Amino acid sequence: MRRVDEERCETKAVIDLDQNATTPLDPAVAEAMIPWFVAGGNPESRHGLGRRARRALEEARERIAAQLHAEPSELIFTSGGTEANNLAIVGLASLAEETGANDPVVATPIEHPAVTQPLARLADEGRLKLDLRTEWVGRDGVADVEAMAAALTPRTAFTTLILAHNETGVIQPVGRLAQEARKPGVPVHTDAVQAVGRIPVDFAGLGVQTLAFSAHKFHGPAGIGGLLIQRGLTLKPLLFGGGQQRGIRPGTPPVALAVGMAEALERAERQGEARRMRWKAQRDRFEALLRRELGDHAVVRIGPDDPEARLPQTLNLAFPGLKGELILLGLDLEGVAVSLGSACASGAMTPSKTLEAMGLPPEVRHSAVRFSWGAFLDDADLDDAAHRVVQVIRNAREEQ
């Protein structure tokens, strides 16, 4: 039976509405990378090939930094967002140990696992204390940064707040938290993996000390990301064995991937406003179509009412009375790729910690589905996907 279902899915054009997970590589980005995959030359070598690779690497660094309003020297290339977040968290924890800032890290439970898991590991090792409170998360998913700021002291190790949420699409007031944290002198980290390439990100303007991002979220290559580290701040490395990138991230930098990330980010920023306007229109039209066909009462939007407070290409919708995993499977058979508002642990579906922290009722948490897309889906694709969603929801209700 499973094979028949798979063959049925393969006969339909698949519409990828799971692009907060990853985005397809832009063909223009692939074209920009190809010469550097075949060119040879280690950017650390002193001969001609090495110098050529070094120039390409540093030009990519300058291009990326310019788009994020940072200095080139503030950018460290990493293998992706997970490493960038870990490098920041562990590095800031080490800095706190050195300075004696041993009051708890202030954060919320809605952070990505690439932040919460290293924090938990460091706490288990006794290297830091944690203050994670669900009361700092509103029912709309927006963090109460004033309440978080009230918990900061001059001895707080650091604080962290995700810039744009991977599940809900909520854009958090990170700049306000950084402004408040400046008073007691507390470092601020932000996970901007879902934000960079989708909304304007100004590292200098935000006022944070570290910022993580990843190329494959904005049609760049997988396997590379970056960590911006404010000038004057020195973090200890996670890895050892070389002096590359000031010793903060040793290892031979992947020139082709760096060039690809620079090209993808420049293209995203160059088309930024037009792309965001199109995404917002698609997002609102998608939701409106579902509400028209299924009824307002049957669709619950998760997140703030203000559309500007959510990522333009992300919708988290709940369909109370249904189970999210059954919706996902039904949509998979209909050729629509989505993700749930819940996480899969060892093959068992468990409620999303984010939706729990928001205080949403079980019938909403367990029926939540995340829809997210990128630059290469047009209005017809989104309309087609919406009609498939309507059919799956109707079928699921009839079968109950």
Automatic annotation (TrEMBL):
TM ranges: none
Ranges for domain Aminotransferase class V: 17-383
EC number: 2.8.1.7
Keywords, in A-Z order: Iron, Iron-sulfur, Metal-binding, Pyridoxal phosphate, Transferase
EC class name: transferase
InterPro entries: Aminotrans_V_dom, Cysteine_dSase, PyrdxlP-dep_Trfase, PyrdxlP-dep_Trfase_major, PyrdxlP-dep_Trfase_small
GO function terms (MF aspect): cysteine desulfurase activity; iron-sulfur cluster binding; metal ion binding
Database matches in Pfam families: Aminotran_5
Catalytic reaction equation(s): (sulfur carrier)-H + L-cysteine = (sulfur carrier)-SH + L-alanine
CC cofactor: pyridoxal 5'-phosphate
Family indicated by similarity: Belongs to the class-V pyridoxal-phosphate-dependent aminotransferase family. NifS/IscS subfamily.
The protein's name in its UniProt record: Cysteine desulfurase
Organism: Isosphaera pallida (strain ATCC 43644 / DSM 9630 / IS1B)
